Fold these 2 entries.
Entry 1:
Amino acid sequence: MNMNNMTGRPSIDRPWMKYYPEVLRNLQIPACTLMEYLKMNCPGENVIAMHYYGNDIKWSTVFEKTEIIARALKALGFGEGDQIPVFLQAVPELVYVLLAAEKIGASLLCRDNTLEENVEAVRKSGAEVIIAHDYLAQNELEKYLSDSSVKKVVLLDPCYSCNREDMPDYIQNTLDSRYPEVKAGGSAVLGWDEFLAQGEKFDGEAEAQTNVDRPLFRAYTSGSTGPSKQVIHSAHTMIGVVHQMNFYAGTDDFRPSWMIACLPPALIAVTVSGILMPLASNKLLILSPFCDPMDIDLEMMRYRPNSFVMIPWFVENIMHNGRIADDYDMSYLLAAGVGCEAYNNKQLENAQEFLKAHNCNARFTTGYGSSEAGSNMTLPLSPHPMGNGNVGIPTLCNVISVFKPGTQEELTYHQMGEICVSGPGLMLGYDTPEATAEALQTHEDGMVWLHTGDLGYMDEDGVLYVQTRGKSPRHGGGDLATLPMENRLADAEIEGINDEFFVVVPDDEHRGCFLPYLFVILKDGYTVDDIEDEVRGCLDDYMQPVEIVELSERPFFHFKTNRIGLTQEILSARNTWRKNRRTVKRAVAV
């Protein structure tokens, strides 16, 4: 693009398009069902679509099982417009049930939060039947029966599509740990074979009229960064993401493998980019849903996948579990990178050095996406150096720009503001119109934009730099953008620090303001006193942490750094301190 013709508005200039070949620039998203899309991209019905703990599942099986389950769902009373609560991990049956729901015009409802929150989601759905694994506890079943409209539960053995003996011991142990002392049972329980038998016997009409824009997949956000919300997607919006991602981690030389381990399908990115995308792009999908996150290194070494969905927690475990030998060869990885949360320069450097030391030439990258955008918004296609929040350029059909927070005023290059995206993968909305109207806004250009709440900037090449989640002003001036603060310390290479991250908490003495706390993981033999002067010397006055706290390792909750838990601990400790202080004051007064 001629820089002299730039308007200064990324949404108009779209400078990132220069990185895409001409043949891709007019990519069109097919307006078809998921089933039609998968059949369109199916390499052959006798080709293996999925591998599940020793069992190779052909495409013909996917299609056959979908038909039976669609009829079984109809036999249970589900129909067009209904919500089907599904509490399954990423097992083959999850794929069949999703495609079957599409066929009958219903939508899947997934949530992976507390029992109370899961029951609440089912109650709001009005569903009389839920689908879950057979490790559902009796007390959990009773909770659904008493506090929602549920009358029947279909239970699936996780080993239904595999032989338990083909699972490694560490997988079997993790699966065993999920079973309660008293499993769900009684007249309300329907086994999977009984469920399928109802489908075999059903002779009514199962297929609803095609509507690619009706709700198909409903999932709640994890709640790790704020209140959990139900995000609603259609076949059209999910294909809108998948179709832009199909070439990622692909090759013309052989059929690559793609592993999805540990992560639940209630995370939209897992279902869309982790499961549907490899299925639709002729990759062998390896499913390992019952791998403990601490054993992700063992599954990687067992399967040697060409690519797999990584998050910071997985990378930490792979590097630090101590089971990967110094001379272990990781050259089988074609792509390596993380999403889920921001990755600071120190984490990025550590990961890249680890790959290089193990003969992996893949460039370690960071990505960006959200449930509301259907998963990935960017791809690491830019030649720019990684780091400083670089998450790559917008995917082919997305337009990303930065706006003045709280407004529809577009900013120019290198100006910090709220990241917004417009494209075919945007959710239909939340389950409340008020929240939907706040997130999805039609701008003066006539385009619908998702206001993400994330802050960052874009450079003249269209490379997006994500910096923090929301504004966090500090009393007296300055905005506590966590990633730039962490990168200050990462780039200083302070001796003794293995890892560090900030948590910003509300300043209860100044409404609307925040205070920073720094958490550090130190090398053996170092203390906070050893690194504090250098840390404080790297930071501007407004960045100075209230306290520097040493941790033995980075804590995680729902696959993200557990900032919400640490925030609660800080607030609780602060309240205890105040309570004790008031007690002392009263005692002194007496």
Note: The longest helix spans residues 563-589.
Entry 2:
Amino acid sequence: MPKSNIEDAQTHYKLGIAFQTLGKLRKAVSSYIQALKLKPEFAEAHCNLGTVVESLGKLREAEASYRLAIKYKPDFDEAHCNLGTLVKSLGKLREAEASYRLAIKYKPDFVEAHCNLGLILHEIDNLDEAAASYMKAITLKPEHINAQYNLGVTLHALGRLEEAKARYKKAIALKPEYFKAQNNLGVTLHALGRLEEAKASYRKAIALNPGYSAAYRNLTQLKTFEKKDEEYSKMENLYLDKTISDEDRCDINFALAKACEDIGDLAQSFQHYREGNLLRKKLLKYDITMDIQFFNRLKSNYAQLEKNSLKIAKNVNKLIPIFIVGMPRSGTTLVEQIISSHSQITGAGELPFVARFGHLIATSLYEANTNNLLDFREKYLFQLQKLSNKNPFVTDKMPQNFRFLGLLAAAFPEAKIVHVKRDPAALCWANYKQYFATKSLGYSYSINDITKYYSLYKNLMEFWEEKLDNKIYHLDYELLTASQESETKKLIKHLNLKWEKECLSPQNNKRAVTTASNSQIRKKVYQGSSEKWKKFKPFLKKAFDFI
């Protein structure tokens, strides 16, 4: 290539950078293209062209540019990182993970690549590695605000709440106006049972950003409204703002629904629940046919699981899982709080490990053979051991594990399974009125979807009951609240444990709780919660009558 071409290519490249810095993106594109005409293997020009066309919304062109940059310069760490961010936006999480890992391979101190890798690992539910990635970023750059914040998010998801609190506080110290960190600090304090501090954090987040709807939604879960006060008026003004996003409108509807319910304006409350749910379903793009197909696969694959069920000798394992399952909002949090009040039991909360390690086996995407079942068992117990606090029993109260009871019975013949049942109408209403942080409960944002999903759940539980030969202990939530002592004693006896009176005072259990019930379980067990839905009966148009 003539020397003049190389020099001219450099000139156009530098001009492109200047235009890009000034925000003159189309002129920047023209300059980079001119540079590449003169020097087609100019990796830096390909990479910069990618960043510009990506900002113009031309994602496919940007991806092609990043790949050309890597083709001509395989160790180009910045191009690998940029490609990772782009393919992540396209939903290609595994490709994004690979790109970030390559960026780090070629530049081990690449802070942004470590931080971005953490985001991907969290999204694919690899929380331990995500935390490690953020810690690496922080080690390299302690003042990295996003790494501190994201580490807090991951630590909260891992149940390491005190550590999460410390990270949020560090992010706030670095950036006092960081309203999202203030909100998340409130969520963590809420889970720790420090309710007044949580309310103060939510209010700080709102003071920093009066339009931050998520903080209002969180605050209303801790506040009982007696009238349409100043905070109500602020929420109403936000609701009336036609310019807010669907996400914000969803949040503020759930907030106003709770406030109106407190005040007794049930018609307005129902309207806000309805609007909030419609928006949440739209944002999640939920389609119940996916769950119908999923439940069918679970049932059709059970014969293979049963055929290869593990034969575990008694007392071979010193750690025994107690799986507490049921529909969300059925009372699983209360039951775990009761059980984990026993000195021999650690309450581990809602663990993601059954779905993470076993989903593919349960649905026949991996063969349900002995080796795969043993691998699933070992991976799960390894994670459980880390949470056990050296107790012989550990509860996993992920409600949705009801879907995987066939897998659990095959892999953990020694485990205890407690199924919490609740009045169907109360249960369906409790799901409808709840904003779940997880994106995996999309059925709960439509009355029609909820009733269909309840039927799927009921049918699957009947299937497991038939197949699992009385391995499931059914616990009636309403009966538990009405006859707390007798039902609790029967439960503890079923677990083959000696009676301890502390199990009758679950409100004194100081363990952290991260579920939607984290306020209720701080109170004494009370009756009547399953009757509350009836005040909304006039607005439901007999939706629950068939149940």
Note: Residues 63 and 237 are 42 Å apart (CA to CA).
